[in-house]
Amino acid sequence: MEINNNSALMSLPGALSEEQLIDFKRKGVMGPFDSPLSDDALDDMFVPLVKSVKSLSDHPLYGRYSVRDWHLLQPALVELVKHPEVCVKLQQILGEDLILWRSKVFYKRPGDGPIEWHQEWGAFNGEEIGNDKPSLLPKRNLATGFWNLTIWVAMQDVTLEMGPMQFVKGSYLHRYPIDMIPMTESAFWQDPFLDIEDKQALITRCNDSKLVLDIDSSKFLHEVDTDSASFDELKALITDKFATMKAAITEEFDIDPKDLMTVEMKKGQYLIFPERTMHRSLSNTSGLDRFGINYRVTTSDTLVYPSRLVGDFIDGSNINIKQHQCVLLSGEQLNDDNVYQS
User: Fold this and answer.
1) H-run or E-run covering 137
2) By C-alpha distance, which of 84, 93, 73 is closest to 30?
3) CA dist 172 → 177, 229, 298, 304 (Å)
4) 237 φ, ψ (degrees, to nearest 5)
5) Helix (H, G, I), strand (E, B), or coil: what is residue 44?
6) Residue 202 and residue 230: Cα distance in Å, rounded?
7) Apex CA 221: angle with CA 243 and CA 61, to 5°?
8) Does pLDDT of 51 surpass 80?
């Protein structure tokens, strides 16, 4: 892994020490770091975001419900990752020309199970829902260095019972095999019926494609007599439909207990890691919602959503990204084919 050893960066507030950089090269994850923002500033970021996500309303940029890229609509959300004390850490790892190209909210309801072990090997191609369409096309050699980092932020205190993040230290050095299996058995499957209590709510949620993120279920019930079918019969039918789709799971692998890292966090704290580092989140066995948001930052020479250049605006998560824009965090824009927020 290449590291930007700019001594001038090391002198800036929030910069990583040489020892911290060495530790990051060993583990592939660092933090949690305390937020440089005040509690009031965090509330200004998080309260509107929670409202947007929990309302299940359509995303204004994407035309349907999505937990992606709310930073493009709520600019306060960019303030944390753009803060000099956060950004300097990213510059030390990736270099000084950086763009924010994606964010995503993770809403784990009481009773939601784990999101199982997974790693992203750089393309963000949608394999978690069975697709294979790269979202990023880097100029860097994938074998010699990082070119994308995730900044995972706790939107409230996250205890062990609330489903914290887990990592396998050093796992970014090895690509673990995956298998494509029925979606209902995949690493990312969550019970879509957990908070649905009656048949009409189920029908509406299914028809509006708000059961499983990024999956179009609007036609699942078109040939079904929903009046005569029971609530349980509809749930079984819908589950069978999802089971016909393929999604990814990481094949079983051994974990040395000393390499397992479980991270409880305080509100506003953040972790930094490349998606190559094997990670998962545990079940939420508490009675509280658990919210987190991740920011994905890449070098500005990386081409974002390369399919746009041939007129294809549907990404690997089945989202229409025609209105998507990148946000310059630091340095210069080095790829003229990217679309930037003005």
Assistant:
1) strand 136-137
2) 93
3) 13, 48, 17, 22
4) -65, -45
5) helix
6) 11
7) 85
8) yes
Residue 60 has a CB neighbour count (10 Å cut-off) of: 12
Q: Give the span between the Cα atoms of 201 and 192, in whole angstroms.
A: 12
Buried-state track 280-299, b at ≥16 Cβ within 10 A, e below 16: bbbebebebbbbbbbbbbbb
**For tokens 């990736």, what's the residue?**
94
Judged by DSSP in three states, 150 sits in: strand
Strand 165-168 and strand 260-263: the pairing is antiparallel
Confidence of residue 121 (pLDDT cuts 50, 70, 90): confident
Q: How many CB atoms lie within 10 A of CB 105?
A: 21
In this prediction, residue 241 has a pLDDT band, given cuts at 50, 70 and 90, of very high
Pair of tokens at residue 107: 């809403």
Helix count (H) and strand count (E) of the chain? 7, 14
3-state helix, strand, coil in the chain (%, to 5): 25, 20, 50
Please, are residues 89 and 14 in contact by the beta-carbon 8 Å criterion?
yes
* DSSP-assigned beta bridge partners for residue 314: 320
**If you average pLDDT over every residue of the chain, what do you get?**
93
Q: In this structure, how many other beta carbons lie within 10 angstroms of the beta carbon of residue 308?
A: 17
Q: Is the pLDDT of residue 322 over 70?
A: yes
- β-pairing, 136-137 with 260-263? unpaired
Spell out the residues 6+ positions from residue 135 whose beta carbon is closer than 8 angstroms to its own. Answer: 101, 102, 123, 124, 125, 126, 304, 305, 315, 316
What phi and psi values does residue 89 have, to the nearest 5 degrees? -65, -40
Q: Cis omega before residue 177 (within 30°)?
A: no
Average confidence (pLDDT) over 174-194: 95
- The SS3 of residue 68 is strand
